[in-house]
Amino acid sequence: xxxxxxxxxxxxxxxxxxxxxxxxxxxxxxxxxxxxxxxxxxxxxxxxxxxxxxxxxxxxxxxxxxxxxxxxxxxxxxxxxxxxxxxxxxxxxxxxxxxxxxxxxxxxxxxxxxxxxxxxxxxxxxxxxxxxxxxxxxxxxxxxxxxxxxxxxxxxxxxxxxxxxxxxxxxxxxxxxxxxxxxxxxxxxxxxxxxxxxxxxxxxxxxxxxxxxxxxxxxxxxxxxxxxx
Length: 229
What we know:
A hairpin with a 5-residue loop joins β9 and β10. This protein has helices at residues 12-17, 37-40, 42-53, 70-75, 92-99, 117-130, and strands at 6-7, 23-24, 28-33, 59-63, 83-87, 107-112, 134-138, 156-163, 182-190, 196-201, 210-211.
């Protein structure tokens, strides 16, 4: 059954796989990069910018340090005049929770490292109370940091990996081409659903994703790569 209170990816194969037909609004969702991008979270940030670009209202984006590149968010459809940037240092989780008291927001994003069960449950409860969707953008200095695999209360947990864009160069297939960037989206955990993997073209200037057709039937992520939780 497709629910009205969801944030859709706009890609049928992804939305139909999620319970309710999209990301549940008024809930906590976790997004992180993969491999080297776990530290910077660039692809993950652009995915969130594209998703939130298609909603109305301001977005509160809380960062640990001032390294967020606003023009990149704009290229994914989220214009700077819609974003309230909060440089919160170690208080990102507190800023996120406070922001969730304001139901007029289109969404809340917080760049965090550790996020245990207690903190994540507080965010989930606050999101349920206001109806505002909150995203924890996880960032760590080490891709294999065990804290990323710890259980938390997020309704969905995602990994976003940058892939080489086409066309491939025959003698260097891993070198990005000049076409639209590509991402691998791994759904690691979903309450009421199962893990899965898709390869998509990155968000365009309107925040829209597109499925890469030659990878449309990719199987779910290997069990050893899935996050516990």
